[in-house]
Amino acid sequence: MARLGHRLVAGRAEPGAGRAFHARRAGLLHASRGRARLQSGEYGANVVGRALAGPVVAVFGGAVGFAVDAASYVFSFVSLMRLRAPDRAVPRPDDEGEESLLREAAAGVRAVAGHPFLRALTGFLVAWGAIMAAITALTVSFLLGTLRIPTAWYGALFAFTGLAGLAGSLLGGRWVGRISYPVLTLGGFAGAILTSLLLPVAAGPLVVAASLAVLGIALPVFFGAIANIGLTGVLTVDIPEGVLGRVLAALKTATMTAQVAGALLGGLLGDLVGVRLALWLCSVAALGSLVLATPAVRSMRPAAVPVGAAP
Predict the structure, then answer these.
(1) Global pTM value
(2) Helix count (H) and strand count (E) of the chain?
(3) Which architecture, in CATH terms, is 103-300?
(4) What are 272-283's pLDDT values in tens digits?
């Protein structure tokens, strides 16, 4: 149910993000601002879906919520199948077979390894993905079990993440061309990590605890949206269009593998030491992961400054 709004606007965010990346021919600056607009639509729809989730589950039960969520996937599938825009990619004779797939994957890894900023940032992205997956796995138990947030409030709390992501996307879009992409990326991730500390702090009367929890959930999304726009800019400026998809696949594979491990570890940690303490440990680990971003700071170079930025 919480994802229904996403599909009503653009199906899924990732395909839209991919189209923004391939808007290079229309201008690199335009691509980054286009990504900001796509994110704004995604998060705006997120507000609707998540706001409706809690009341629907509270009134009709969890089974109805899952049914609506499943229906939203069907809606997304049908919408994608109805797309008629031609693919601008030029077919290559070596695009078939398992060997070609392995070559494409290897090319993506080489492109990341050959880019100083992305190479330095990859270790941080993997660690951050694992930690955020662990925090996400613990959040539901923390809100409903530890803080005892009413089920009807649950979706409304997460609706604020949509508003935060929308605000971050709009602000990040305005900063494109004024602030270098690496600074946007690293600054956004640092803000997300620091504000995530508000979640395990949440305690006290229900209203106070819920307010702190909202800030601990929404503010990282706000800063993460800014970081995503910055990372999009780094990719579109420095990575040739011919290998951009492979680079994205390499980064996505690394971070998603880490997320699976992080989610499993988060659940195990919650069982062993308790949900709140597990959240604290994850938050401290997130702070420690900033050390992994230090090489990325050192690798920043003038070539990654946005097109049109002031000298």
Answers:
(1) 0.69
(2) 13, 0
(3) Up-down Bundle (1.20)
(4) 999 999 999 999
